[in-house]
Amino acid sequence: MVPQTPRQLLECFQQAMLDFSPDALADLFAENAVYEFPFLAPRREASRYEGREQIRAGFTRAWASPYPSPVAGFREVRVHDTADPELIIAEHEFDAVNHATGESFTSGFVLFLRARGAQIVHVRDYADVLRLSAGFGQLPQLFEQLQNSDPS
């Protein structure tokens, strides 16, 4: 399937996460797309990727792991259309596993996805950073990062 609509692109986005494929993910984006992470998270190198190749490189580094994708599946997917036909808002919960410990957990996020010309042009990814950090055993790093961050 060649995705044409924002909803179809969202389905491909989810599959790329399940496949743990930075290339499949980046290939969904326009050359000058923007991917934003408004919430702080441990070990995240940037709060924003600008351009398809920066998205590819950022996810390649973030997903460099000897393990398969920690995302085991999506559930509670709710997609909201907006007055703007290019923009959808998706709420997800997903089941994940911490491969280092073997423990499973559930987390979620809200995604604002804007598509134009059968490509994603902008994503704002509001991940549940506390649940992700707890699930991956990284709460101390998150709290340290919060203490050392600039509040402005």
TrEMBL record:
Query: Which superkingdom, per the lineage?
Result: Bacteria
The residues forming the signal peptide are: none
InterPro entries documented for this protein: NTF2-like_dom_sf (IPR032710), SnoaL-like (IPR037401)
Residues forming the SnoaL-like domain are 16-122
User: Which Pfam families has this protein been placed in?
Assistant: SnoaL_2 (PF12680)
Q: This chain belongs to which protein, by name?
A: SnoaL-like domain-containing protein
UniProt organism field: Streptomyces natalensis ATCC 27448
